[in-house]
Amino acid sequence: MTDKTAQIDAIIERQEEALKSAVLSALKAMNKSATHANIKGYQTAKKALEDYQTKAGETTGERFKNIEQASAWIIGQGYLVSPRTVRNHAEKMTGFPRKQKDGSYLQTEIAVYASATWENPGKPATETLTNGAGRDELVAEQVRKLRLANEITEGNYILRSLVEQEFSARASFLKRDLFNLGPRFIDRLMDKLSTLLKECGLPVEEINIHALVPDMEAYWDLKVAEHLHEYSKAKGFIPEAAAIMKDEL
């Protein structure tokens, strides 16, 4: 490496660190107050960093042609991961380095992601946390988010939003079925009651028990609505469930 090349690399590194610092500041501001201006500021800073890294990668040639090359490099660096897992992260993880327009991946981004996501027995975990003021906090936050996203991808964690959507859908189906059950149940009850009265020799036609159906259906709907309202209130299901399990054991 010539002196001029070293000088260029140093300039590129300083500029990249400055852009990363701007991203960190914008991220802190957005987390503190998610106003439109702060969100826009973070998006602008992030795009500026990504655009710069793309141009820097084009200049230096430090990129992988495809995900297979990136995977081979990650494994070659000693990370405990398989090519299939790397591909799964590339396809499913929102935090995975974005693919460039030509289908390639920047080596700097791949290196940061690999260090934050997978174990490497031959590389101390703190090695990437020693460069640049404020980098510790930024990388630590990246590590936390990427590990959490990795747990979600592997199926160890479930997003709360997905759980809430699932419960909402189930509650909707339950509500519909309960209200539909009432008329069917009442019609069958009336038929059984009519048969019983006939067997007892009573004039079923004169009694007209089916006139009770509207009142019975209204009562059914009222009670179903009351119960659903009661279950919609906040309850300590976990302590109650734990107490039941303790009693059963």
Written description of the protein model:
By secondary structure, the chain is mainly α. It folds into three domains: 1-61; 63-157, no CATH class; 160-248, no CATH class. Helices cover 73% and strands 2% of the residues. The protein has helices at 3-32, 36-60, 67-76, 83-92, 107-117, 135-153, 160-199, 204-207, 213-232, 237-248; strands at 63-64, 105-106. Helix 5 (107-117) crosses helix 6 and helix 7 (160-199) runs antiparallel to helix 9. The longest helix has 40 residues, at 160-199. The radius of gyration is 32 Å and the shape is elongated. It starts with a helix and ends with a helix.
Q: What's the short version?
A:
This protein has ten helices and two strands. With 249 residues, it is mainly α.
Total helix count? Answer: 10
**What is the rounded Rg?**
32 Å
Low-confidence stretches: 125-133, 244-249
Principal-axis shape equals elongated
Order of helices and strands: HHEHHEHHHHHH
Strand order of the largest sheet: 1-2
Largest sheet: 2 strands, antiparallel
Structural class determined from secondary elements: mainly alpha
Strand content: under 5%
- Terminal CA distance: 72 Å
Mean pLDDT: 75
DSSP E strands, number: 2
Indicate how many domains the architecture comprises. Answer: 3
What portion of residues is helical?
over 70%
